[in-house]
UniProtKB/TrEMBL annotation:
Keywords: Amino-acid biosynthesis, ATP-binding, Cytoplasm, Glycosyltransferase, Histidine biosynthesis, Nucleotide-binding, Transferase. The lineage of its organism: Bacteria, Pseudomonadati, Pseudomonadota, Betaproteobacteria, Burkholderiales. This is ATP phosphoribosyltransferase. Belongs to the ATP phosphoribosyltransferase family. Short subfamily. Residues 63-218 form the ATP phosphoribosyltransferase catalytic domain. It comes from Rugamonas rubra. One of its GO terms (biological process) is L-histidine biosynthetic process.
Length: 226
C-alpha cells in the first residue's frame, strides 16, 4: 500500500483521540470503567501513540482543537473534546452521543476592571473583542445586536485588554483566578461548557460492536459525575 495513502491505518484497531492535560486526566477514570488502562504517560513520554492494556485500543495525543478533525476524517474512531472546541469546528461528520461532564467551565465575556461594558453596549459602541472562539463570539454578539471587530488569538486572551489590543475578551472561565490575577472582570456568561464524547459516523456503523461497550461504560461513569 502506498505510503501516501492517508487511509492506510489498521482498521482492526480502535483509536481514541485525546489532548494532554485535563482532558486526558479526566478521561482516564472513564476508560477504567470500560476496563481500559493507558499504559504510557503523555506527560513524561514524547510518544504520540499510546498503548493500553487492550492491544486493540490505542490513544493518540493531539492538540485539543485538533481532536474533532482527527475524528471527522476517521484517523481516530472516537475522541473527547470541549463544547467550545466543537462549536468552533462545526461538528461535521461527528456523532456526539454523550456529555461526559468533565472539564466543566463557562464561556464568558470579560473586560478590564473599570471598563463600562454595559454603557458601551447600550450606546452602540463598536467593540474590539479578542478571542480564540471567533464563531461563538460572532454568534453571541450578533444575537445581542452588538457590533464587534473580532481579533483572533490562540491563547493568553487575558492579556489583550491590558495592552490595548481589545476592549473585551471571550474566553473560558472556571475558578475566575486567571481573570482576577489580570485585573479583569466577567461581565457576561455566554454558555456552560463541558467535554463530549465524539465518534466518527462511519466507525459508529462499522465498529459498533466494539465501540458500544466502551460508549456504555463512558455513559455510566459520566452519569456518576452528575
Ligand atoms: P488548550 O491547550 O486548547 O487550552 P485545555 O486542555 O486547556 O486545552 O482545554 C481543553 C478543554 O477543557 C477546553 O476545550 C475546555 O472545554 C476545557 N477547559 C479549558 N480551560 C478550563 C478550565 N480552566 N477549567 C475547566 N475546563 C477547562
Ligand atoms: C484556561 C483558560 C483560562 C483559564 C481559566 O487556561 O484559557 O485562561 O483556564 O481558568 P480559571 O478561571 O480557573 O483561572 P489553561 O489553564 O487551560 O491554560 P492555557 O493557556 O494553557 O490554555
Ligand atoms: Mg487551556
Amino acid at each position: 500500500m502506498s505510503v501516501f495513502n492517508s487511509q492506510a491505518r489498521d482498521q482492526s484497531q480502535l483509536i481514541l483521540a485525546l489532548s494532554k492535560g485535563r482532558i486526558f486526566e479526566d478521561t482516564l477514570p472513564l476508560l477504567e470503567e470500560a476496563g481500559i488502562t493507558v499504559t504510557e504517560n503523555p506527560e513524561t513520554s514524547r510518544k504520540l501513540i499510546l498503548a493500553t492494556n487492550d492491544p486493540n485500543v490505542r490513544v493518540i495525543i493531539v492538540r485539543a482543537t485538533d481532536v474533532p478533525t482527527y475524528v471527522q476524517h476517521g484517523a481516530a474512531d472516537f475522541g473527547v473534546a470541549g463544547k467550545d472546541v466543537l462549536l468552533e469546528h462545526g461538528g461535521e461528520g461527528l456523532y456526539q452521543p454523550i456529555d461526559l461532564n468533565i472539564a466543566a467551565c463557562r464561556m464568558s465575556v470579560a473586560v478590564k476592571n473599570g471598563f463600562d461594558y454595559a454603557t458601551a453596549v447600550r450606546q452602540g459602541a463598536r467593540l474590539r473583542v479578542a478571542t480564540k472562539f471567533v464563531q461563538t463570539a460572532r454568534e453571541h454578539f450578533a444575537a445581542k445586536g452588538v457590533h464587534v471587530d473580532l481579533i483572533k488569538l490562540y491563547g493568553s486572551m487575558e492579556l489583550a485588554p491590558l495592552v490595548g489590543l481589545s476592549d473585551a475578551i471571550v474566553d473560558v472561565v472556571s475558578t475566575g483566578n486567571t481573570l482576577r490575577a489580570n485585573d479583569l472582570v466577567e461581565v457576561e456568561e455566554i454558555m456552560q461548557i463541558s467535554s463530549r464524547l465524539i465518534v466518527n459516523q462511519a466507525a459508529l456503523k462499522l465498529k459498533r460492536e466494539r465501540l458500544q461497550p466502551i460508549l456504555a461504560a463512558f455513559e455510566r461513569a459520566s452519569k456518576m459525575k452528575k
